Amino acid sequence: MAVRIFIDGEAGTTGLQIRERLMGRDDVSLISLGAEERKDTDARRRALNEADLSILCLPDAAAVEAISMIENPETKVIDASTAHRVADGWVYGFPEMTEGHENAVRHARFVGNPGCYPTGAIGLIRPLVENALLPATYPVTVNAISGYSGGGKNLIQSMEDSSADDHISSAVFAYGLQLQHKHLPEMQQYSMLEHVPIFQPSVGRYYKGMAVYVPLHLWALPGGVGAARIHQCLSDHYSGHLFAEVAPLEQSSALLRLDPEEMNDTNTIRFHVFANEKSGQCVLAATLDNLGKGASGAAVQNMNLMLGLEEGLGLNFERAA
Ligand SMILES: NC(=O)C1=CN([C@@H]2O[C@H](COP(=O)(O)OP(=O)(O)OC[C@H]3O[C@@H](n4cnc5c(N)ncnc54)[C@H](OP(=O)(O)O)[C@@H]3O)[C@@H](O)[C@H]2O)C=CC1
Ligand SMILES: CC(=O)N[C@@H](CCC(=O)OP(=O)(O)O)C(=O)O
């Protein structure tokens, strides 16, 4: 029998993409609310409690409210918002994060889907800290650029509608300039860093796709760690994972430009190591589709694991040509 999935916030950017990925699958059936019911508390409560698994694609406050409405102890939840990513009782929905974590997701009732930027940053940093190549005390900086769909309906409208009061006409802009971005707690905690990293994101005038950068001064690392060891560590860590890959060192070093859109329309995160051995410097980079592995794709991957729908794991994620 097909499992019942309710996407609360189905009409939003993330919700729509999850719906698209699930349409046409015969192992899931979607509980869908009509336009007039999608914000009706009673209708949502009913759907949340009927579902085998609910995926919350809502602002934080609405996600917290949705959790308070769930009475059915069998209902599983994936929350795409920031509300529960570092909360007790929730499993962080990044199955590739560390050994055994895929199993933790598989057996979880409550999964906090990661933020798009943290997926890139944690994906680069955590294996290095776990393997003692990067001290947990290292003062990490994370720079990033995202397509504007990362900001949901509001930012999409500000970028696309020139008549909107809050229209943004810049080709690219930096933000998070107060250094208090909402992704910092999950980035620090799951990267296993002792200090809050500096995180400096930006948005470009293109719809989706992101690149997340972590520059490292290799000369400052203990034990003479070079780019080759870092690359080997990442390659070993992600070996055997369907949705993560590490570009060969020589391929990355031959690149003249890194395209933040290179992984669009996939659920795969790609890692690069760029280095200048002479200066002892290195820039680690992750590229991902902010709506794929950064949000909706990750949610579907987690859903498949939590419901044992293994055959669905490889579905609906075409690699870009
Ligand atoms: N966009 C992205 O790349 C990513 C987004 N996320 C997270 O996912 C969540 C959804 O984001 P996103 O899809 O971008 O946001 P959107 O603004 O595009 O969509 C949110 C949806 O939730 C609906 N909504 C708001 N309040 C309620 C409510 N009380 N009851 C029912 N529905 C409600 C909105 O309705 P209406 O249409 O009327 O506004 C809208 O359709 C957020 O928490 C975001 O932080 C996570 C990772 C990446
Ligand atoms: C471009 C843009 O605005 N991006 C969003 C993050 C998108 C994301 O990862 O979603 P969560 O909101 O679920 O954390 C931001 O910086 O707030």
Automatic annotation (TrEMBL):
GO terms for biological process: L-arginine biosynthetic process. Residues 4-104 form the Semialdehyde dehydrogenase NAD-binding domain. GO terms for molecular function: N-acetyl-gamma-glutamyl-phosphate reductase activity; NAD binding. Its main location: cytoplasm. It is found in: Cytoplasm. Its EC number is 1.2.1.38. InterPro entries: AGPR, AGPR_AS, AGPR_dimerisation_dom, AGPR_type-2, NAD(P)-bd_dom_sf, Semialdehyde_DH_NAD-bd. SUPFAM superfamilies: Glyceraldehyde-3-phosphate dehydrogenase-like, C-terminal domain, NAD(P)-binding Rossmann-fold domains. Pathway: Amino-acid biosynthesis; L-arginine biosynthesis; N(2)-acetyl-L-ornithine from L-glutamate: step 3/4. Keywords: Amino-acid biosynthesis, Arginine biosynthesis, Cytoplasm, NADP, Oxidoreductase. GO terms for cellular component: cytoplasm. Gene3D superfamilies: Dihydrodipicolinate Reductase, domain 2 (3.30.360.10), NAD(P)-binding Rossmann-like Domain (3.40.50.720). The active site is at 116. It catalyses: N-acetyl-L-glutamate 5-semialdehyde + phosphate + NADP(+) = N-acetyl-L-glutamyl 5-phosphate + NADPH + H(+). HAMAP family: ArgC_type2 (MF_01110). Belongs to the NAGSA dehydrogenase family. Type 2 subfamily. Catalyzes the NADPH-dependent reduction of N-acetyl-5-glutamyl phosphate to yield N-acetyl-L-glutamate 5-semialdehyde. This is N-acetyl-gamma-glutamyl-phosphate reductase. It comes from Nisaea acidiphila. The gene is argC.
